[in-house]
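Task 17 of the worksheet. Students: predict the tertiary structure of the chain below and write it out as structure tokens. Keep your answer in the requested format; marks are given for formatting as well as content.
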Amino acid sequence: MILNARADHNHEPDEERKIQRQKLRQECKKRALEDITERLHKIIITEAGKMENIASDRLLPADVSSVRQSVYRVRQKTQPKLPKSQEETHQSLNDYKSLLTERK
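Model answer:
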């Protein structure tokens, strides 16, 4: 069934908020990779404060949560995966040991 009615929207377009969220996400990802010891919350707050035209009243808690999750995923890619079994643990240690001997 197709309706030919026009829906009236009584809110502003979300386009500006989406652009701001994307800019914030990119800056936070870059900073999270540069400084892996910095807490994610501090990175997000600092980067949001640096952005000149960011309207903090337009960023919703869901936007901040989305940025935090995105930055967390990027940071996790730089970390080695935890072994799930004893065999994987031994293999990881052997790989690390051979890596160290190659560097000498």
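Marker's comment: The mean pLDDT is 83. Helices lie at 15-34, 40-50, 61-77, 86-103.
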